[in-house]
Design goal:
The chain has 426 residues and is α/β, with parallel strands linked by helices. It is built from 13 helices and 16 strands. The strands form five sheets. Strands 6, 7, 8, 15 and 16 form a five-stranded parallel β-sheet that branches. Strands 9-10-12-11 form a four-stranded mixed β-sheet, sandwiched between helices. A three-stranded mixed β-sheet has the order 1-14-13. It is globular. The N terminus is likely disordered.
């Protein structure tokens, strides 16, 4: 089979409607691969649960808390932009698989550049996660909390002060985004990083040194931890988390620069990176001690091709990168997108149970069909038996408590292979 890849160096651009260029979408070279067909298995019921949401008394934490024992009192941090309000509630509490137990089917929905714009997509997916007992990962872009009037505070590596490849948020959207971040965290979702200026290609993340990546990360923290100072807002309470504890990973713009980014992020104690440009649906491995959570190759057009699990890829394959393609084809394209996601899900749900990673942006490309497709997928999969729709952080927690031998055997499985679990989980 062939692969049709539309996304690696695609360049999102706007606060409310990002205008992507076709040239950027075409930057990902095509490769040829072979893949096993989907192998359906009658037994879709897992033998035991993945773990338990915090508060049910089951399971054990993946690692000791990075913060002092909470005394029940909110601790305001810095200039009052953030605070510590105790351990996050509702997170999955991971437990090791029992001998012979079928792994849960993890599904991670992640969003690049989380912003509550005029389309209110951040709040829509936060509400959808709550409705379907799911957690999602929202990758925040740091400059979305920096007023345009203060843009010169941002010094993107290799760029002039204030420069960015995306628009700065309006003051109203900064306010609304702060509220969504607060609620998302309270509901058990993860807040990660999409860094700041979204630079791609020449002078983008792929050209940055380790120190330049550290500069980008330090500025991300600064914008989020000092939004009260930069905005002057006095009527908005502190965010209910300590950002240096909360952020444990991110996704680089255009999926560029992972080698130096991995070296940079280790000094911050991060545990995963979601910047790989694409891989097959296999159980994750670590790179340089960091969990690697890539976008994945999913069956496209009935398995004729394999394409990346992100809206950019579908946009490229369906309308050549044009964000407003032929309206007469919207319904067909939406169904093709849903079918591809579901084919990827079914391949592992009835097979190896490798996690499914779906990445998206808050956009209205081609009439919003990629958002509508995600709506259908969330409804279809998060309610299925044995499925856990989790954040990347929760998945990292779960992987960390599994036996190394179990993970090694899981990684040896082909995606569509449904094994005798007693030989895999010992």
């Amino acid at each position: 089979m062939s692969t049709r890849n539309g996304h690696r160096r695609a360049r999102p651009a706007r606060t409310n409607r990002r205008n992507i260029t076709l040239a950027a979408l075409l930057a990902l070279a095509s490769v040829t691969v072979t893949f096993l067909a989907v192998s359906r298995h009658d037994d879709t019921t897992p033998t035991a649960s993945a773990g338990a949401r915090q508060g049910d008394g089951k399971g054990a934490a993946a690692k000791p808390s990075q913060t002092p024992k909470w005394d029940g009192k909110t601790k305001i941090l810095g200039d009052g932009s953030t605070s510590y309000t105790g351990p996050q509630k509702g997170e999955l509490k991971p437990v090791p698989l029992k001998p012979g137990e079928k792994p849960p089917q993890f599904v991670v929905f992640s969003w690049d550049g989380a912003l509550e714009g005029s389309d209110h997509l951040f709040s829509h997916y936060r509400e959808m996660a709550k409705e379907y007992d799911a957690h999602m990962t929202f990758f925040l872009t740091g400059i979305y909390l920096l007023p345009k009037s203060k843009k010169d505070l941002y010094h993107g590596p290799m760029h002039s002060p204030g420069d960015a490849a995306i628009d700065y948020a309006t003051d109203e959207h900064i306010r609304e985004t702060l509220e969504q971040l607060r609620q998302a965290y309270a509901e058990g979702n993860e807040i990660g990083t999409h860094f700041n200026g979204h630079f791609c290609g020449a002078k983008g993340g792929g050209d940055w040194s380790v120190d330049e990546w550290k500069s980008e990360i330090d500025q991300f923290y600064s914008f989020v931890q000092n939004w009260k100072t930069s905005t002057g807002y006095k009527d908005i309470p502190a965010l209910p988390f300590d950002f240096k504890d909360e952020v444990t990973g991110g996704r680089a713009p255009c999926l560029e620069g992972q080698p130096n980014l991995l070296k940079a992020m280790k000094s911050y104690g991060w545990r995963y990176d979601a910047s790989s440009p694409g891989d097959f649906q296999i159980w994750p491995v670590k790179k340089n001690g960091i969990w690697d959570f890539p976008l994945q190759m999913l069956p496209y057009e009935g398995g004729k091709y394999q394409g990346l699990s992100m809206d950019f890829n579908f946009l490229y394959n369906q309308s050549g990168g044009e964000t407003k393609g032929d309206p007469a084809k919207y319904a067909e394209w939406e169904q093709t997108t849903v079918d591809s996601y579901m084919a990827g899900f079914n391949r592992v749900y009835y097979g190896s149970r490798a996690p499914l990673f779906i990445g998206n942006h808050f956009e209205d490309w081609n009439g919003g069909i990629y958002m509508k497709a995600i709506d259908q997928v969330v409804k279809n999969v998060c309610s299925k038996k044995g499925v856990q729709c989790v954040s990347f952080k929760e998945l990292a927690d779960w992987l960390d408590v599994q036996k190394p031998g179990t993970l090694e055997r899981l990684r040896s499985l082909d995606p569509a292979q449904s094994p005798d679990w007693s030989t895999v989980v010992k």
